[in-house]
Design brief:
heterodimer; A: 248 residues; alpha/beta; Rossmann fold; six-stranded mixed beta sheet; four-stranded antiparallel beta sheet; B: 362 residues; alpha+beta; six-stranded mixed β-barrel; 50% helix; elongated; binds adenosine-5'-triphosphate; binds magnesium ion
Chain lengths: 248, 362
C-alpha cells in the first residue's frame, strides 16, 4: 500500500556514521510453540546497523541468532516489532505474511531481498552447475566491469571458470561472498560464514567481507561462533535469553 | 532458459538417460501411430484414394457398399440430377489363382468404368482403357510380391473365368485385401458365370463433388469418410489402437513429469537458496518449464527422426504409414502434456520455505 514512501537506499560514503541506519530492527518479538507452551526466542530485540558497519552477533546455540537473521532478511515475520530497511518500514501497512495475500507478500519479500539484501550462508550454497563467475549473475545480471572488480578483490580471478565441485572450501565461500555483494545490496546478512572453514581460511573470508563492507559502504550482520574473528567486526553483540546486548 | 541449459549440460549424463527414455517411449508411440495409419490404409486405401467426395448407396445398406444395390433406373436418375461427373462402382470379395496353380489368393474386385474417374493410376503395364485384352485386370502391387507379373493369366476360383493381368497399381487395399480392378463389363460376365439369373445392378455411385444434391427415392448420399468408417472392422480397429497410442503418449508425459518431480525434490536446497537470495518464483517456474521443455522436445524430435528413418527401410508389404500431420499432432500433444506435468514440480518449488536455508546446517 504505502510502498513508494522513501524507498531509495541512502547514498552513503564508507566509514562515516550516519543518521539513517541501513537496517533497523525495532522491538522484535518472536516465539515458537514448544509443545503446549510458547517459548520466546526473541524478546523485544532492537538493533541498528549503519552503512559501512560490520556487526557481529555471538551467542550460545539455539538462542535465536538465525531467527533474527531470518526476520532481518524478510524470510520470516516477527510476532511484533518492525524491520526498517533504508528508512522504509517493511512491516508497515499490512502485517507481514498477512492473511489472504500470502503469495503477494512472498513476492514482495522476494523483491526486497533481491534489491536490498545479500546473503552468505553457513555452507557456500553455490549452484553446482554454474562456473564461479556465473554464480554472480544468478540474482541479477551484473556488468562485466563490476564482475572483474569483485573477482579481483576476492582473489578469485584465476579460478573464475571453475565449477564449485572443483573448488576448495575457502574458494567456494569467497564466491558465496562475491555473490552476496554482486547484486549491490544495502545489507549483507551472514550466518556463520566460517563454520565450514579452518581458522586461517575463516579469517581470510571474514576479513574480505569486512573490506567489502567498508569499501562499498554496506551494512552487514554476521552471526559467528568464532571469537577469533571478532576483532574484524566494528561492533559486537551478544545474544542471550532472547535479548541482544552490545558488547563493544 | 540459460540457467536450465547450463544445468542440463552440467549433469548431461543424468538428463541424457531421461531423454533416452523419452526417445524410446515416443518411438514406440510413433511406431504404433504408423501402424494404425498403415492398418487403416490397408482397410481403406482403395476407397480413400478414389477421387470421389461422396457415394450414393441404397438407403437400407447402412453404408456398406458391398450390400448396397442400385437399379439401372435409379442410377440413371442419379446421373440426371448430378451436376458433376459420376461413376459406378461394384465391390466383391473373391479368390483368384495363378493359372496352373490351386493356391487361392484373396482379391477384392473393384468394378469400374475404365474410361471413368475411378480408373486407377497405373504403376506398370497399361490401363484398362488402353488394353485390348479380354477380361483385363489391374492388380495392386502386393500381387507382384506373390509372383504375378504383367501378361500373366489368373483365374477366378469360383467361376474359372480367366483374367489377363495388364497392369499394376499401388496402395489399393480394401478391408485388408488387395484390390483387382476390372471393368464393369467384365464384372457382369463374372456375375453371369456365378449366377445365370444375375440381374444387372450397381453397388454404389461415386460423386466427384461434395456439394452435389441428389435426391432419389430409396437412395442416400454418404461422405467418403463415413463410408470408410463403415467398412467392417475399420472403426473398432482404429479406435483400439489409437486409444492405446494416446494412452502411451500420456503415460510417457506422466513418467517424464515424475522424473522431474523427483529430480526437483532433490534440488530442494538449491531452490531454497535461489528463493532466499531473491530469485523470483516466475524465474524459477521458467527454469523448471524450460528443463522439461528441452528434454521433451529433443526426445520427441529424435524419436520422430528415428521412426522416419526406420519407415524408409520397412518392406512395402508391412502396413506402416506415417502421416506427417498425425506425427506432428502426437509430438506436440506430448510436449504440451509434459509441460503441463511440470506444474506439479512448480507447485512443489513454490512451497519451499527459504527461511529453512538460513541457519540450517548443510
Ligand atoms: N520453525 C521453528 N519452529 C519451532 N521452533 C523453532 C523454529 N525455528 C527455530 N526454532 C527454535 O528457536 C530457537 C532458536 O533457533 P535459531 O535457529 O535461531 O538458533 P541459533 O541461535 O541460530 O542457534 P545455532 O547457533 O545453533 O545456529 C531454537 O531453540 C529452535 O529450536
Ligand atoms: Mg543458527
Amino acid at each position: 500500500m504505502n510502498e513508494n514512501r522513501n524507498n531509495t537506499p541512502a547514498q552513503l560514503s564508507a566509514g562515516t556514521t550516519q543518521a539513517v541506519p541501513a537496517l533497523e530492527l525495532k522491538n522484535i518479538t518472536k516465539s515458537y510453540a514448544d509443545g503446549k507452551e510458547m517459548r520466546t526466542v526473541l524478546n523485544d530485540v532492537s538493533l541498528s546497523v549503519y552503512p559501512g558497519e560490520l556487526a557481529a552477533i555471538v551467542g550460545p546455540s539455539g538462542c535465536g541468532k538465525s531467527t533474527l537473521l531470518n526476520i532481518a532478511g524478510m524470510m520470516q515475520s516477527p510476532d511484533s516489532g518492525s524491520v526498517i530497511l533504508s528508512g522504509t518500514d517493511t512491516t508497515s501497512g499490512k502485517k507481514r505474511m498477512g492473511k489472504g495475500s500470502a503469495s503477494s507478500t512472498k513476492r514482495a519479500w522476494a523483491k526486497l531481498r533481491r534489491d536490498h539484501i545479500g546473503f552468505i550462508f553457513q555452507s557456500h550454497q553455490l549452484l553446482p552447475y554454474l562456473r564461479g563467475e556465473d554464480q554472480l549473475d544468478v540474482v541479477k545480471k551484473i556488468s562485466s566491469s563490476d564482475k572483474e572488480k569483485l573477482l579481483k578483490e576476492l582473489d578469485l580471478t584465476e579460478i573464475r571458470r571453475q565449477y564449485p565441485g572443483a573448488m576448495s572450501g575457502g574458494e567456494r565461500q569467497r564466491f558465496a561472498v562475491a555473490r552476496a555483494f554482486a547484486a549491490n545490496p544495502d545489507v549483507i546478512l551472514a550466518d556463520e560464514p566460517t563454520a565450514a572453514l579452518d581458522s586461517v581460511r575463516g579469517r581470510k573470508v571474514v576479513s574480505m567481507i569486512a573490506d567489502e563492507v567498508h569499501s562499498r559502504g554496506k551494512a552487514a550482520i554476521m552471526v559467528t561462533h568464532d571469537s577469533r574473528v571478532l576483532d574484524l567486526a566494528d561492533t559486537v553483540y551478544r545474544m542471550e535469553d532472547g535479548k541482544l546486548v552490545k558488547e563493544r | 532458459m540459460k540457467l536450465a541449459w547450463k544445468e542440463l549440460t552440467h549433469s548431461w549424463k543424468k538428463y541424457t538417460l531421461i531423454t533416452l527414455i523419452v526417445v524410446l517411449m515416443m518411438f514406440m508411440v510413433l511406431f504404433l501411430s504408423g501402424l494404425v495409419d498403415g492398418l487403416g490404409r490397408a482397410v481403406s486405401s482403395g476407397i480413400d484414394n478414389m477421387p470421389a467426395q461422396s457415394f450414393v448407396l441404397k438407403d437400407d445398406a447402412e453404408g456398406l457398399i458391398t450390400v448396397s444395390s442400385i437399379t439401372k433406373d435409379q442410377a440413371n436418375a442419379v446421373s440426371a440430377q448430378a451436376q458433376h461427373e459420376t461413376a459406378t462402382i461394384d465391390i466383391s470379395r473373391m479368390y483368384v489363382s495363378k493359372s496352373g496353380s490351386d493356391e487361392k489368393i484373396d482379391v477384392t474386385y473393384f468394378a469400374i468404368d475404365p474410361a471413368g474417374t475411378l480408373a486407377p493410376g497405373v504403376l506398370e503395364g497399361s490401363s484398362l482403357a488402353d488394353s485390348d485384352s479380354q477380361n483385363a485386370i489391374i492388380l495392386d502391387d502386393d500381387f507382384m510380391a506373390k509372383g504375378i507379373s504383367v501378361g500373366d493369366v489368373i483365374r477366378d476360383s469360383s467361376t474359372s473365368l480367366e483374367f489377363t493381368v495388364v497392369g499394376f497399381t499401388k496402395d489399393a487395399m480394401y478391408s485388408h485385401i488387395s484390390i483387382g480392378y476390372i471393368s464393369t463389363e467384365t464384372y457382369a460376365n463374372l456375375m453371369h458365370e456365378l449366377n445365370p439369373n444375375y440381374h444387372e445392378s450397381i453397388h454404389a455411385i461415386a460423386l466427384s463433388d461434395s456439394t452435389e444434391a441428389i435426391s432419389v427415392d430409396g437412395l442416400t448420399v454418404m461422405s467418403k469418410a463415413d463410408v470408410i468408417n463403415k467398412i467392417p472392422g475399420y472403426a473398432s480397429e482404429q479406435m483400439t489402437i489409437k486409444m492405446v497410442d494416446w494412452m502411451l503418449v500420456v503415460i510417457t508425459a506422466v513418467i517424464l513429469a515424475i522424473f522431474f518431480f523427483v529430480i526437483n525434490l532433490q534440488k530442494e536446497k538449491e531452490f531454497g537458496v535461489m528463493k532466499a537470495i531473491g530469485v523470483s518464483m516466475g524465474r524459477l517456474s521458467r527454469f523448471v518449464i524450460a528443463e522439461v521443455g528441452i528434454i521433451a522436445t529433443s526426445g520427441a524430435c529424435v524419436a520422430g527422426i528415428l521412426v522416419w528413418g526406420m519407415a524408409q527401410g520397412l518392406p512395402a508389404t508391412m502396413p506402416f504409414y506415417l502421416k506427417t500431420q498425425n506425427v506432428l499432432v502426437i509430438l506436440i500433444a506430448f510436449i504440451l502434456i509434459s509441460l503441463a506435468g511440470s506444474l506439479i514440480s512448480i507447485i512443489k518449488v513454490g512451497r519451499i520455505d527459504p527461511a529453512e536455508i538460513i541457519g540450517g546446517d548443510n
